Amino acid sequence: MVVKSATKKKLMDLGIAENFAHTLANDRKWDDVKVLSAQDIAQVCETDSETAGSIRDTIEGALKKNRAAGSEATGPTTNVRLKRRAGTRTRSRAKTAADLDAYNVDKKLRSFDDELADDPVYKSLKSAIEDLETNRFSDKIIHDMTVAIHERNLKKLTKKQAATVVANAYAALDKASIDPFEAAGIITAQSIGEPGTQMTMRTFHYAGVATVNVTQGLPRIIEIVDARKIPSTPTMIIRLKDDKKNSDVEAQKLAAALEVTTTFNIANIETDVAQRRLVLKLNKGQLKQKNMTGMEVKDKLERALRTMVQADKEKNPGVLTIIPGVANEEDLADLQENPPSYTMLLQLEEKIRDLRLKGVPGIERANVQFDDKEGEYYLSTIGSNLARVSEIETIDRTRTYTNNIIEIFDYLGIEAARQAIINELESTLLSARLEVDVRHLLMVADVMTSEGEVRAIGRHGVSGTKHSILARAAFEVTVNHLLKAGIIGETDRLTGVAENIIVGQPISLGTGSVELFYIPEE
Description:
single chain, 522 residues, alpha+beta, Gyrase A, domain 2, four-stranded antiparallel sheet, 12% strand
């Protein structure tokens, strides 16, 4: 059972009992719930008509209140018209901007306090740094130094020991720092490009996950820097909440609910040309594996197709019959006079065959795995859909991860996407046993995300938007760039590396950044 947490919360906020809210939110968005009739609610919640009517009145009251609030709102609104199929009614829905939460300065400042601030080692190092009178050490560096000392089984430091550690760290930090006007971008390109040539172009088996192959090596590096919208092998790691993570049964239920289940997966579809109808013979074994029932399949088919579905049994059907164009009992009476065409039958068969009955779009398979280190069950998927998976109530959103960087950007924002680029580059290089200084990866991530969106390092991204005409022309489509610049009268100031090399003059980096003039005495 995949319960939409946002839908459940909305229903409970309206005052609907938790057990009914939980049932109604099963595999339904708010848009699906608010169009349910009282009869539908009674059937879904297995309750009496009076209780179902009360729930329907509550939902209807909330909808009227929202419509009234939307019409009286003074702020800007955007009317979104949803297009429906021919023959069905259309409706418009207004979205209003919500007020931002108040910014709490004290709470924000407290979040910067280090968790090791009261540790004796941390205090000793902090005191030694103050004696050194330098601002080169950030709180993160002091934190990492404290952790490293604890790993050496030292619980405290003398003043002399702390001073020695800080002095050595200062020397290492000074040695690792880049000089002013150093060509950091060139060095970054070399530090990643050289190991990249050593990578073997093959895919590695994903550790501990059966039947899941993830693109690694040079192809994965290319995917990342090209900012591909969909990676060649999108995957997700889905962690469960604390009360569910130790249960194999809960993990299996979630896996069955996440995997996309089509009609073809759970039924044999037969086309009766003579009777102009489709007969679906349900596979009981597949239904049990997917945690579905025959009535659930019938209900979902009726909702998706807006067509009447006939069942051989009322409670646990094994055969379902669908006739094109028949939406209710009244249409059955007119069937002999106005039978469906052969074209309608073929179109319906094609639509039903790949119709998604259950699961999250994009999740082709979900495998249950056991993490020996954490002692918990988790899911590894083939396919990715971060936004939809995050709506599920039983997952731990803080530990759910996808290798699709664009999905992370769309759902969590540019900072999360920047960190994902760093993580993916680092893990790909480490899997090939190549070590690259993380600051070089930081620079790549910064360049790709500096404009507030994830840009590819290519002519459709970073290289294609450089200010220098010659730098753009040197990368790709040379004639196009030069012709366009000539037409609009663009000027190149020759401030970068590539353009200065092209015209044969020193670049303004390193030794070229210094201009020395000799003024002779009179």
